[in-house]
Amino acid sequence: MIGSKNKILLMKVRLIGAGAVGVVVAAKLNCVSDFALIAKGERKDKYEHGIFLNGERIDFKVLSPDEADKADLLIIAVKNFQLEDILDDIAPFVGADTTIISLLNGIDAERILCERFGSEKVLYAFITDLSSNHLGVETVCFSNSGTIIFGEKDNSATSRMEKITKLFEEAGQRFVVPKDIMHEKWWKFMLNTCYNTLSAILDADYCAMCDNTSFVRAVRLVAKEVQMVAKTEGICITQDDIEEMIRRVGALTDHGKTSMLQDVQAMRETENRYFAGAVSRLGKKHGIATPFVDFSSILLEARRHVVEKY
């Protein structure tokens, strides 16, 4: 590993959002690059006392916006509803040659980042096959770091893609560069809309979902509406895509939980408006009825309020 570190030591990687996703990725990249978490105030103090992954303490360098340097690669792993709030915090880390990757779920993050920092700085990305539970500074990961799917919006091969590919290879971070990154982002968006929403309503972890035929039936109903909306946005989601989603999630038989279920149980804000809410919004825009998605969104809000009250 020492030899690997020497090869890419000059690559300056900065990450914001050390939660269930961020800390798992951070643990890999911390070993093979000039790596630091971005945080300020009490959160910075907390991180500097150590973050725990699967019971093992990991000490990260932590930089506040006031201590910023210009990153080669800036990774964003916060929640959607936090993105607007952290734009000013990450701005000092963005230089002329910085590449930005967002691991946020949904289909809105890259648009927001392009508007703020320029489309030339942004790669399109998300993470999948990750099962982890997070509370405070402790994360338990049930999978091998997840798989980062990333690429240029036009799917072209570029020098920065090559550099980041080498970084992930050295770090042992699983990744895929797909033929069509926008199709893949919508596929993950469909997965989030189906499984995050329904699991949070039913309080179901992956083990509870894996062989539940009624749950899968509900997934198919929601997925069909996402498929219709995607078509109006120029994205072709096939029946094979839906079945592959069901197969992939069904293969997770551990007691990991979707991020939305964790948020509901911890009485945190959810990303409902970025998943089911986004499908409903686009459905109205294009004149497409989305009754199952709409009902799921309403039920989730009802469930969240019940948890908060009782």
Shape estimate = globular
Which stretches are poorly predicted, pLDDT < 50 over at least 5 residues? 1-5
Radius of gyration: 19 Å
Strand order of the largest sheet: 5-2-1-6-7-8-11-12
Secondary-structure class: alpha/beta
Largest sheet properties: 8 strands, mixed
What is the mean predicted local confidence, pLDDT? 91
Helix and strand string, N-terminal first? HEHEHEEEEHEHEEEEHEHHHHHHH
Beta fraction: 15-25%
For the record, give the distance between the C-alpha atoms at the N and C termini, rounded to a whole number. 50 Å
State the oligomer.
single chain
Summarize this, please?
The chain is α/β, with parallel strands linked by helices and 310 residues long. 49% of the residues lie in helices and 16% in strands. An eight-stranded mixed sheet has the order 5-2-1-6-7-8-11-12, with helices on both faces. The protein has a four-stranded mixed sheet with strand order 4-3-10-9.
